[in-house]
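Below: protein 1.
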Amino acid sequence: MIKSQLVKKLLNKNPHLIQKDVESITSLVLEKITSTLENDGRVEIRGFGSLSIRKRKSKNGRNPRTGESVFVPEKKAPIFKSGKGLRDRLNYKA
């Protein structure tokens, strides 16, 4: 699902809202999640999951095309861990 599809679903479920308001709220929520992760924070949405940052150490890698040794600097990567509610809905549909 992409952002525009999410906005359309929210509008369908809440016909009393204006599209511009739903778009701005959606953008605000996603921006807040992004800024929290940028500051090495953690975002948890109960029943859905949590997002956090994991640091990957620097290392020496290889260029697969030339075989030349290349230094790969330290990086941050977002990590998602699904919540119990999400796992239950995916695996044990009643």
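Below: protein 2.
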Amino acid sequence: MISLAGRDILHAWGKFVFTGLGLGLLIGVTLSMAGIYRGMVDDAEILLDNSGADLWVVQRDTLGPYAESSSLQDDLYRGILTLPGVVRAANVTYLTMQVGQGDRERRAMVVGVVPGGPGEPGQPRFLVAGRHLTQGHYEAVADLATGFRLGEQIRIRRNLYRIVGLTRRAVSSGGDPMVFIPLKDAQEAQFLKDNDAIIHQRQRTLANPALNRPGQPGLLEAVLASQTVNSSVNAILVRVAPGADPDAVAGEIRRWKRLTVHTRAEMNEILQAKLIATSARQIFMFLVILSVVSAAIVAFIIYTLTLGKIREIAVLKLIGTRNRTIAATILWQALGLGAIGFMVGKIAASLWAPIFPKYVLLLPGDAARGFGIVMIICVLASLIAIRAALRVDPAEAIGG
């Protein structure tokens, strides 16, 4: 029966090859959709790995700093450092914006970190060239995906920064590459108001009669000073001591500092349940639609090929060929078509994955599961053609 199916495929090899190519491109898109989802999950995990933190301390009752905005005073980390089980605590800011380089711009997540070595929380961990941030101002470490090179100058808000290091796989949960700059510069970029806004705010403050009371001479000056200085951060990254229980340390911070603390497991759940969930459902719907379309294409092609061989099938029946052999021949043709399509799809997905703007992660396990699903679809799609073949009257071989 396999030989019979093979001979029939060789007889009409052009139809099978071109049909396999078309089906393969569709399967390639399906595999790429699954790879995009895997890439989103991997981006979220890499984001947490790059932070180098065991705990994320954020504004009370928020899901910050990635799923929601969060604002903390930048001196709170000192009190956290005094708690038992805490080894390191460092401020960090996150701001997604356009970063300029010459005449072009690149969307990136600008991360403000405390300058230091690779052991500091928030510092990029996978440096491939250059060095980490050591100066307090106007240095940057960029991800390779930004396209920036060592020694280049980039523009963030009003200031220029020199690229002193390059890292890889430093991305936000949305897949935007990261640019690391010193914390003070990042605070200025994110929180400092421009000159016009400061002037207008001062004018409104000076016109406020409540701040010009005779018995409070220093109140107006204090308010004016606070309007030009903003010492806020988005989160505090905490690393616990070896052997310490992160949940216990998080409980101490919540108890004494009255702040929200997320552990690694909680932050991973926030990223996947809050940020990726909607995209995951959309991708799942696309996968279902593509699977249905693939099944319909295979069913239509096999059914069309079967109808084109009605006379040959009638001759087989007339010479005594069993229905089981005819059905197996059609089934093997469908499986052969699916195998050709899957090989083309796997090759196509591997070739165009690096071109995608988002990270596409093609796992061998997903490919194996995809191959199994393709074979099941081919089996189901062949049932219509098998049913039509078994209903052929042997007399048609004579009457044709």
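Residues 13-51 form the longest helix (39 residues).
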